[in-house]
Amino acid sequence: MYSVFLVDDEPIVLEGIRTKVDWEGAGFTFAGEATDGEIALSMIHEIKPDILITDIKMPFMDGLQLATAIKKIQPWIKIIILSGHDEFDYAKKAISIGIDDYILKPFTSEEIESALKKAAGAIDKERKQLSDISILKEELKSQEKLIRKEFLNNIVHGSGDMASAMSKSQELGIDLLSRYYKVIISKICSKTNNTDNEQHACSLLNSYSSTWEQTVCYFHHTNWLISICKGNNQTDLEENVFRIAETIEHIVTQNDDVTVVTSIGKTVEHLASICESYEDAKKIIGIQNLANQNRIISTDDIQMNSTEFLELKENAPMVERLKYAGKNDISAIINESMELINSNPGQFQFFASYLLADLIFAVSKLFENLGGNIKEVKPEILQRSFIDTAVQNEKQFRKELESVLNFALEYRDSKITGKYGDVILKAKKYIDENYADQNTTLTTVAEAVCLSPNHFSTIFSQECKITFIEYLTNVRIENAKRLMTETDMKGYDIAYECGFSDPHYFSYIFKKNTGVSPREFKGSL
Q: How many Cα atoms are found within 13 Å in the side-chain-facing hemisphere of 134?
């Protein structure tokens, strides 16, 4: 099934397409609609349809402007233009943008279905070409590709001759000139350890990634996609980074067996510092226990207060280590502690007490920087009696050391996913107060919580387990049900009161969400 999104400023046109096309019979699903390009852009960002049908002449943002924006951020979407203007200039502009089909008004449902099937055929052909695993294998065999990969690998690892890196990149046709950089690592895994599924997903990414603007990509391991993202300012860079991260997730998860964890390193200003962003992203990948999950995590999600957190590196090395340590590092920390103790025979309790106290201090500091208080969460480890009991013998010491380390890492990881609680609450409050406004969109809510639309969309979906558009629609539907129950308002008045621009679309969405029409719901009261 292929999902289809409609955009037209004439409600009668939207209703005609929505009601007259046999969506399921033709192999398509109706994903949503909008009456102008600006609102549509926000919704398409969330819904990610396969096909877009849009009118050319619309207020605020016309169809060609919308198509241009869509091709930039979600290039896989097939776009069909509707127009009442049989003019060469429109067709010429549409072709330059990369429009897939062009239908003149008035049109029939048969013409729409024919265009949809043509778009579906193009999607199938494209997917077949991109899924050919031999593409990736042939590229890896190519000497030129291997030289390119080796060069980029040296860049992200900070090795090789960095002084001549820029001139070398120009020789290889790689544009690395920029003001700011961020490194993304995407780890692709099969839930069932199916290598073919992993390679299929990697092949798709390998083919698509060459079209991403301001980004240079390569595969480091067979299932690690490294993306070096560039930007002339930090705002544009962040927008691009989260857009690419979401695109990667969308491409990979076309196969339900494959998951992807994407980590985003910190922003750096020099080519020679790209390795720092890479190491940041690599550490984030290393600490996540996210088997069979899809996740996008940036260094900002780890560092509640990045400046304060990073300043602890020199003064509190154990805090810095706990910041990135994984469960598999616990044994190493314990063994290192035992080596230090054993190098001073006859002084077990003294050194064990010192090391445990140092660890507890580090855990306390970690809690503080994650917005918690060790005194409230686990006060017993602050008691002198806890240390005295723990250092009675080596077995007991190892046990308590492991217990404290496990506790610290579990608390840290819980804060990684729960960091944006305040942001989500603020966003939901804004939606509750503004759902009736037709201009309430992903962009306006993102502005209200001081995040970019891409970053906010990612956060909202991951934290709430529902997309922003789905949540906003649910709020509007629930308030519509309330008005039907408590008032004698007409259906079209309720539609406008709850933020819907078209009563017919309101009726469609209401039935889609509740299983009954507004009239049937009202009659059941």
A: 2
pLDDT tens digits, 430-454: 998 999 998 899 989 999 988 888 8
Q: State the pLDDT confidence band at 130, using cuts at 50, 70 and 90.
A: low
Domain locations in the chain? 2-130, 134-304, 310-418, 421-523
Yes or no: say if 7 and 34 are a contact pair by the CB < 8 Å rule. Answer: yes
Contacts of 470 (CB under 8 A, 6+ apart): 46
**Which tens digit of pLDDT belongs to each residue from 70-123?**
988 788 899 999 887 665 566 667 777 788 888 888 889 899 999 999 999 998
Q: Which fold is adopted by the domain 2-130?
A: Rossmann fold (3.40.50)
Q: What is the CATH number of domain 421-523?
A: 1.10.10.60
Strand order in the sheet with 51-55: 28-34, 2-7, 51-55, 78-83, 101-104
How high is the pLDDT of residue 159? 82
In this prediction the pTM is 0.59
Q: Sign (positive/negative) of CA torsion 487, 489, 494, 498? A: negative
Rounded CA separation 3/23 (Å): 9
Protein fold of 134-304:
Alpha-Beta Plaits (3.30.70)
- The per-residue pLDDT for 140 is 56
- Asked whether 268 and 181 are in contact (CB, 8 A), the reply is yes
